[in-house]
Design goal:
The protein is of the alpha/beta class and 644 residues long. It is 67% helix and 7% strand. The protein has 26 helices and 9 strands. It has a 5-stranded parallel sheet, sandwiched between helices. It has a 4-stranded antiparallel sheet with strand order 6-9-7-8, sandwiched between helices. Strand 1 (401-405), helix 19 and strand 2 (425-429) form a beta-alpha-beta unit.
Length: 644
């Protein structure tokens, strides 16, 4: 028996990794292969029976897993960021969430006969969308940058908000079922809310103080936060049953909004843990599904799915969009894209187990209906969102924006010039000081590893079409390069040639020169940094028929380094080792080292001297001409005045 359980755990781990890889490779939400895997192992082949294998441990596993998921989601709910991402996002996660809830709950009540408490709980569960399903879909569809930003931030922000709503509805149902409604329900619910918000806020504040004052050494910080969070979850449940989920959610939100607390490392650790946890949890949850339970929902379940997609979502979008600058096409596109994800599945399964244990009617129907909504929205919208965006004319044009990995002084100066030319730029770096200086220059930034799971969900790449690797991190550069080659294509990622001792020209293929010899095969990070330390500047020069690239080289010398050029139709072209000639009619952005600037001064002085000499020659010629004319005139006058 022990060997069987060990084998199942190992199998779940391997399959979790495989499903995540398949989702990444096919550019699909990982939830789809995870769902299919769970259904195949569980109801399909009857290989995996979570209840029989894990027994009494199943509920604690799911419970702790949901606590981690909710806490990680709450850590992303920064109220300032909600305001920064526009009125539409704010409306969607407030009014829009309430409208969605108000539409779905009556549909579950009238179409499936759910009692009102269960209908309200179901409506709260499927309010959330989530970045784990939105982000892969946006990569495939590639809508306009403002629409992608709205959908991405809605998915991030609404996760904890929807979770709080679902937890509050659940707490009411659980307390009402366990106590005399006329005497204890309000006091018990009040205790749950007081404990959840009060204990969560206190715990969040104390952890924030500990992180701010470095009570924990760096290597213990992530472990300490995770352990304390789980301890608060269990402790809160011991004081007041089922208050733990609300406590950890409030705790995460408090940490996310506390000044002076850096939670970037915590988020990166939690995301790694959450990927494994979500994958394994989702396989277990899908394996627990009764194959006939979803079919038993019948046309009523299909009707609820139609209400979710065709009534609740459009109504939420059009009302939330009042007073915004979105066009009708924008709103129709947003009305169609709202896939549900893992948060709804995990929380619904946890609540179903708890409600079934206390004998609440209809609890067994919650999970099949939630999974039906997940499958329906993810599959249908994944297949149709692309053609729908093309029909509405809201697909993004060829993305000309640049992601610069490495926010050194050179990258910041280059970003400033590109921004002035209306080219979208984002800087990413692990160095906080570099990021801080970029922020002070009003350059969009991402602090952290741009190839991480957190960056995949939270870094706004809308409008970004190419990546320039400009960092000194030799170990991280290849990882970032490979990540974005898979994401954008091998021809869209460029990097400096930082090979030790350089590389001989004849040893480099044209494809290598184009992709990995950014700005030229002899250009390295060290060379650029040395130029910048000695006073190099970035300059924009118009290359025309009257001032060609050859003229540019003669004026600034061989040390001048062409970087990027902009065509007449505002296309951005990256200069690499494979480029030998440049067209005319472009704006050339180049790096001018101190030597090139001196050469420019010399050339200007020589030009001025030549112009003065030329002017002097002209003056001399003119004086000679005038003298000859005067002499001729005088001679003529003398001849005329001679006596005949």
């Amino acid at each position: 028996m022990v060997e069987h359980i060990t084998g199942m755990l190992a199998l779940i781990g391997v399959l979790s990794l495989l499903c995540q890889w398949v989702g990444w490779k096919l550019r699909l939400p990982a939830i789809l292969p995870l769902l299919l895997c769970g259904l195949l192992l569980g109801p399909g082949l009857d290989i995996l029976n979570p209840d029989a294998i894990f027994g009494d441990l199943l509920f604690p596993i799911i419970s702790l897993g949901v606590a981690v998921i909710l806490f990680e989601g709450a850590l992303t709910l920064n109220f300032k960021e909600i305001k920064d991402h526009g009125r539409m996002v704010t409306n969607l996660v407030t009014f829009g969430a309430f409208i969605t809830w108000a539409c779905i709950a009556p549909a579950a009540h009238w179409l499936l006969g759910f009692e009102w408490p269960m209908a309200l709980l179901f409506g709260a569960l499927v309010v959330v969308t989530g970045p784990t399903v939105i982000v892969p879909m946006l990569r495939t569809v590639r809508p306009k940058s403002n629409l992608a930003s709205i959908l991405r931030w809605e998915g991030i922000v609404i996760d904890p908000i929807g979770a709080i709503l679902a937890v509050l509805v659940y707490e009411y149902i659980a307390v009402a079922a366990a106590a005399d409604p006329t005497t204890h329900v309000l006091s018990a619910l009040g205790m749950t809310l007081l404990l959840g918000f009060g204990l969560g806020a206190i715990a969040g504040y104390l952890i924030g103080i500990a992180l701010r004052t470095t009570v924990f050494p760096h290597y213990l910080k992530n472990t300490a936060v995770l352990t304390i969070m789980l301890g608060m979850f269990v402790g809160s449940n011991l004081i007041q049953e089922e208050s733990g989920l609300l406590t950890v959610t409030v705790m995460g939100i408090w940490l996310a909004n506390m000044r002076g607390v850096d939670i970037a490392d915590i988020l990166e650790f939690k995301e790694t843990l959450t990927v494994l946890l979500i994958s394994a949890l989702f396989i277990l949850l899908a394996a627990r599904l009764n194959s006939t339970a979803m079919l038993d929902l019948g046309w009523g379940g299909v009707g609820v799915l139609m209400v979710v997609m065709l009534v609740a979502r459009p109504l939420s979008i059009w009302i939330s969009g009042i007073g915004t600058s979105l066009s009708r096409s924008d709103k129709w596109f947003l009305s169609w894209v709202a896939p549900r994800g893992i948060v709804a599945a995990a929380i619904s399964s946890l609540f179903a187990i708890k409600l079934e244990a206390i004998g609440v009617n209809g609890a067994s129907s919650i999970v099949p209906l939630v999974f039906l909504i997940i499958i329906g929205t993810v599959v249908i919208q994944s297949l149709t969102a692309g053609p729908w965006a093309k029909f509405l004319g809201v697909k993004a044009d060829s993305s000309q924006g640049l992601l610069l990995f490495g926010a050194s002084k050179f990258s910041r100066e280059l970003a400033k010039v590109l921004t002035e030319k209306n080219v979208k730029v984002m800087l990413a770096d692990n160095n906080w000081d570099n990021i801080r200086q970029a922020r002070m220059a009003n350059i969009p930034v991402y602090f952290g590893n741009p190839a991480s799971e957190h960056a995949e969900n939270f870094m706004d790449l809308s409008g970004i079409g190419r990546v320039l690797i400009l960092s000194p991190y030799r170990q991280l550069n290849p990882l970032v390069s490979f990540h974005f080659q898979d994401l954008l294509g091998t021809q869209k990622v460029y990097g400096l040639n930082n090979a030790e001792g350089g590389s001989a020209r004849h040893q480099l293929s044209e494809s290598y020169l184009k992709r990995l010899c950014l700005f030229g095969e002899s250009v390295s990070y060290a060379r650029i940094a040395s130029y910048m330390a000695k006073g190099a500047v970035i300059k924009v020069t118009n290359i025309t028929d009257n001032f060609t690239l050859q003229d540019f080289k003669e004026r600034y010398g061989e040390t001048a380094m062409p970087l990027i050029y902009l065509t007449k139709d505002q296309k951005v072209k990256i200069i690499s080792g494979a480029d030998r000639e440049l067209p005319v009619g472009i704006e050339l952005i180049s790096l001018l080292p101190a030597e090139a600037q001196e050469q420019d001064v010399i050339q200007r002085n020589l030009k001025e001297v030549a112009e003065r000499e030329s002017a002097a020659d002209e003056d001399s010629k003119q004086a000679t001409i005038e003298q000859e004319e005067a002499q001729t005139t005088a001679t003529s006058e003398l001849e005329e005045n001679e006596p005949k």
